[in-house]
Amino acid sequence: MLKEEKDYIIELKKGNFSAFDHIFSSYKERLYSFAVGYLKATKDAEELVQEVFVKVWENREMLDESKSFNSYLFTISKNMILNYFRKRANEQAYIDYLKQNTRLT
Length: 105
Description:
This protein is mainly alpha-helical. It is built from four helices and no strands. It has helices at residues 3-13, 17-39, 42-58, 69-101. The radius of gyration is 18 Å and the shape is elongated.
């Protein structure tokens, strides 16, 4: 991690929105590309990037500037993508169950 990035993380931990904006601008495209690669839907990828940064803001005080922020962001993204697919699989299973066990009259 660059020294400059560590400084932004320290400022982000303090609630500095300018630091947050800088970090968002630095990572949004990479996270978006990562998400689109798995989700194959631009709208879903955009939402995921927003959700990742909401989590970053909400948990900013727990950030550790000595660790890789890049790894932190992509781990959050990966976990959110996995949760997305789990949710979709559960929804589909429920739809299939309803189709099999209900009759429209």
